Amino acid sequence: MAAFLRMTENAPFLQLRNVSKNYGGVLALDRVTFACDRGAIHAILGENGAGKSTLIKIISGVVQPTQGELLLEGKPVSFSHPMEANAAGVVCVFQELSLLPTLSVAENIGITMPTNMLGMYNRKAQISKAEELLARVGCEDINPRAWVNSLPLSRRQMVEIAKALGKSPRLLILDEATSALTSADVDKVMSILGKLRDDGLALLYISHRMHEIKELADVMSVFRNGQHIETFPKNRHTDDEIVQLMIGRDLGQVFPPKPARPPEAVGAVAKLEVKKLSWQNQLTDISFRLGKGEILGLGGLDGQGQKELLLGLFGVLKDVTGEVRVDGKATKIGSPHKAKNAAHRIALVPEDRKTEGLMLPMGVGTNITIASLDKLRKGLGLDAEKEAKAIDEMVKRLKIKVANVANPVSSLSGGNQQKVVLAKWLMTEPQILMLNDPTRGIDVGTKQELYVLLRTLADAGVSILFYSTDYDELIGCCDRVLILYQGRIARELVGDEITETNIVASALNINTGHAGAGAGAGHTSSAAQAPRAS
Amino acid sequence: MRDWKLRLSQNQGLLLAIGLFLVFYCLYSSMHPRGFTAPLFGQNANESFVLAAASMAQTVPIITGGLDLSVGAVVTIVDCLASHLLHGTGAQIALGIIACLLAGALCGFANGCLVVYGRLQPIIATLASGTIYLGIALFLRPTPGGTVDGDLAFAMTFDVNEFLSFLHIPAKSALGWVGKIPAPLILITLLALVWVYYRRTRYGLGTYAIGASPEAAYMSGVHLKRVKLGAYTLAGFFAGAGGLYLALQTGAGNADIPQAGAYTLNSIAGVVIGGTSLYGGMGGAVGSIFGAMVLRSVAFNFRVFDERSALGFLANPLYQPLFEGLILLTAVCAGAFWVFRLKNRLHIYR
């Protein structure tokens, strides 16, 4: 045992030396040097896009580093496939589930088990192995013969963890593995992780739940903009200091000036009023008011219900409960077609422009006019002249760089593609414009054009609901910001309160000494609901 | 008890197919002038085998999320090949059978190569390769004909007693009813056993895994290329078995292009009625056997339907495609109820 300890002291179990990763022109990891030891739980912290996922993907063999080297127990290794990493004892529980939905739990867990001489799996062995592993994670209630797609998300996540344990890992990586779990399951997972640590495993733990990290982690590392900032034992830094480390000192982008009017000026009748909106387990009692000409930001970590909120308002989700009022009139929006009609005039720039925003192989012009064809009708067909003029206007207004509007939209750069999505919705002349992280993956110049455009639209009376994963955008663009946490509004930030510290702290639902943050969902959502008379 | 219910719900497609088959077949045999007899059952099994084998063949690519439009063509090419090979001495015939099955598997392997290494979409790759196979079949057999060993044909398409006497094993009276089991039923059971074995190997599980979620399959260490090659090869083998049987049944080779097309389309119908999802990842070839038999039973009913009864106007064989279509539609609708449970409408398109 002593020899074992000395060995681990000399060479850390896993080391990264000067590891960088480029995706096209984007530097996702920047010369990262990092190490983790056995017998410790190592938490990795960072904002969205700090490089945590890339780090995990490199360690577990999903992607290969552009430069730099990986050392396992002091020896250089390179994993070209997740299976090679697994064989070396490096196992990752991915945030995006790696389970096969139409196969049984036992088959999922046992897919890598050895087969007999005839190449057949032993079903009984598969099932008993599954039972044993499920018992180990405290999920005896899961039937190993059940199909994975018949289980709720939280159970699937536990199956995923059981599957990972079945590979007898020496380094176990949990990437947001607790995000879908119920609190009872989280307790189970935490006690399992404690046991695994005592067994001498190395554990990398990524979570946005600060209280879990504080309870579990022995060591923490902070990443920011693809760089490894600092590694420190727990209790060295306060929450405030950790948040500061995560934010860093970045130069903000250039934003157009906000109007001087008081941000509370929603008015007696809000353009859009939402009361106690709930959907499945993913949205709970969302209430807010959006005024005419206001830019209301939606913030928080990825996947806290922001996307669902926008989809729900756009009529994509079924069985949404609660009340939605447009111009004071209660309404039910059952489909995107209804959302864009004359009574609502709502537009949504969706999250994924390639699948939800654009018809990639079709022409730029067609993509621009597709949502407003009824305005271009002439007899039974379309008014070609009017259509060409409308397209031309949009291309000029948004400065879309395209040689010929008949070219397929897939031939455009990311920024120009996003402009086409915007053009499509601007053609419908929306009163309420919703945007789901519209600047993801586009260049700085286009981003600035977009900021100016949003402010111009707002000044012209359009109400804007703007979800962004980039905190600088929320600070620079928005009159007010709602921070979502686990499907609830955790905090409303107004005017000067919109600071990085406040956004990050309330996104993590921790209290950094500022009044209001993380004071309990019930209290804050009722505060957000309070009427604001002008 | 809970597992018992679970298994029922996991196999509801298969159970629906078995139920439909029983309904239509009982209806048919009750209306048949001689009722349900062993010779009648044997004859029906004989007429169903090729489509059952073709549907099994179609199942494997469909589970991977693909489609095989060359199934009928492989049946036809092997049929034509068999009409050249299945005569002569016992050893020659045995080699001929092996060569026919290998030829089927080879056609399937070629399809797999087009899909895996050519990176072509299965539907277009197999449309092209199927046309090529039909071209070769026409080259092998420009006009219908050829010779197939008569004793073998009789043994394989009749019953166990005949098969044993073909092998010179005297056991006629001792077997009782077992001796009257139709030979095609035994053969399709053998094919089903091949499937059951395959299902339990790494390749079989991989086939489902690819159809269920290629990304998750990759992350779980499934060798996607190898598994796909294996899946198309097995499909070719099943189709080859169908072609071999067709030659035995008809006693000749015939490069019949419309018939090849009909086998391909009916095989897809058989797969769907048998409870396999066209989205991939679920279902199985045993269900497809019953799916094919449902289609056949419907056709049988038209032979015996009483034209003088109240519904006699339905007895017109011209209505057969109409009924087959309606049954296909019913089976597909039963499998599409999940859409009503979706809460996010965007997921309908995924």
Entry summary:
By secondary structure, chain A is of the alpha/beta class. In chain A, 33% of the residues lie in helices and 23% in strands.
Task: Write structural notes for this entry.
The complex is a heterodimer of chains A (about 525) and B (about 350). In chain A, a hairpin with a 2-residue loop joins strand 14 and strand 15 (about 330). In chain A, the strands form 5 sheets. A 6-stranded mixed beta sheet of chain A has the order 6-7-8-3-9-10, with helices on both faces. Chain A is built from 19 helices and 22 strands. The longest helix of chain A has 16 residues, at about 185-200. Chain A is of the alpha/beta class and about 525 residues long. The radius of gyration of chain A is 25 Å and the shape is globular. In chain A, helix 5 crosses helix 6 (about 155-165) and helix 9 (about 240-245) packs across helix 18. By secondary structure, chain B is an all-alpha fold. Chain B contains 15 helices and no strands. Chain B has helices at about 1-10, 10-30, 40-65, 70-85, 90-115, 120-140, 150-155, 160-165, 185-200, 200-210, 215-220, 225-250, 255-275, 285-305, 320-335. The interface between A and B is medium-sized, with 37 and 31 residues.
Strand order of the largest sheet of chain A: 6-7-8-3-9-10
Mean pLDDT of chain A: 84
Low-confidence regions of chain A:
1-8, 513-534
Number of extended strands of chain B: 0
The major sheet of chain B is characterized as: none
Number of strands of chain A: 22
Question: Largest sheet of chain A at a glance?
Answer: 6 strands, mixed
Helical content of chain B stands at 55-70%
Note poorly predicted spans of chain B: none
Shape of chain B: globular
Structural class of chain B: mainly alpha
Number of helices of chain B: 15
Shape descriptor of chain A reads: globular
What helical percentage do the residues of chain A reach? Answer: 25-40%
Query: What percent of residues of chain A are in strands?
Result: 15-25%
Class based on secondary structure composition and strand pairing of chain A: alpha/beta
